[in-house]
Amino acid sequence: MKKLFALFFTALVLFANESFVVHTIHNKDLHITVTDDGIKVAEYPDRVIILDFFGKNCPPCQIMIPRIIDLQRKMPDKVQIIGMHVQDPLDMYDLKRFEEIGINYPVVDYLTNKDNQRFILYIAQLVGWDGSIPFMLFFDRNGNYVKSHLGLASEEELVDDVTMYYLSVKPKANAQETNTTKNSTQPTEPSVLE
Fold it and tell me: Mind listing the domains of the chain with CATH numbers?
């Protein structure tokens, strides 16, 4: 497992500062830059970012959606979930259903355009993701990659993770901050759950 994450960071360094514009189901663009340590989402600075890879036909994903909705509702200034739908294209019925259940975070549909496909495939290759869902990638408030999670997670686990990754680092004051001012107590990688 540690080798996988070493590969992830090596790949991030090799491809650092690759930029993407992904398009949400609500016709909004998200500007995502891959950095040396993770990602930056221009629209959501100073927040823990969770990329949630899910599918409309995935029963465990359907269990997770209300938990993720609650997490986004309870911690809007600390976390931003970005849903990455990776199954069959969403249709009007799916979009209506998402609205009815109250999805309160942006959702990117993999198959709707090449920009979305390019980003999701790029991230999948970086982390060695095999397509199993639900799958989440966590980035602390400075955009540093901190963990992945495969399978179900309780709302309490998610709240604890966001709190830890939000509080474990101080926000970068400006681009001239040095590595000596970073918090050296980064969270450790827990085992991936299946």
Answer: 2-169 (3.40.30.10)
